[in-house]
Recover the amino acids of this structure.
């Protein structure tokens, strides 16, 4: 019998939170030079909706991380070459269009979001330390770590039995309880009738 009408917290919700938690804890241990935000965002984006989809989706997202990282490093190279203050503002939308087009033509639509996330994260942190390729690779590694954590959590943490079965079991239990109450009422009525009958 349900105590309230709120739905339970889903397994995907729990696994996403666990992935983000692992990323934050690991980067906190590693030190302030590492930013958990990129890993946590990647883990959030990459959590698949089922174990069955995790391997294919995981490879798509790892491929997206590599492509987005390479595009980000190339974008920073162009910024250094042009050597104007706001070049990155023009490169971000052009690069985003190019990456979406590339992923679609490679038949890797599942890689598009993480690919663009990595690219944009590299390009937007670029002005903070102009020309820092080390920073780019660091962001790439942080994002890649988040992707791997999400894939592993999704792969190895088992999902409980389907909710449909649990709902059916709950319905059966409620039905049995109702029948039992009805049976008890009938018994009480029979006893009262026997006592009060003329």
């Amino acid at each position: 019998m349900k105590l309230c009408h709120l739905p339970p917290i889903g397994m995907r919700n729990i696994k996403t939170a666990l992935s983000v938690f692992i990323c934050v804890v690991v980067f906190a241990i590693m030190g302030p030079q590492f930013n958990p935000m990129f890993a946590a965002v990647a883990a959030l984006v990459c959590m698949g909706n089922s174990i069955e989809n995790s391997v294919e989706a995981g490879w798509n997202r790892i491929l997206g991380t590599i492509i987005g990282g390479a595009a980000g490093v190339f974008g920073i190279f162009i910024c250094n070459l042009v050597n104007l203050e706001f070049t990155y503002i023009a490169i971000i939308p052009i690069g985003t269009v190019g990456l979406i087009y590339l992923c679609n033509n490679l038949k890797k639509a599942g890689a598009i979001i993480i690919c663009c996330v990595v690219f944009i994260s590299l390009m937007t942190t670029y002005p903070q330390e102009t020309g820092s390729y080390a920073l780019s690779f660091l962001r790439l590694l942080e994002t890649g770590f988040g992707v791997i954590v999400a894939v592993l959590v999704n792969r190895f943490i088992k999902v409980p039995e389907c909710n449909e079965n649990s709902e059916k079991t709950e319905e059966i239990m409620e039905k049995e309880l109702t029948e039992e109450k009805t049976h008890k009422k009938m018994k009480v009525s029979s006893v009262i009738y026997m006592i009060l009958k003329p």
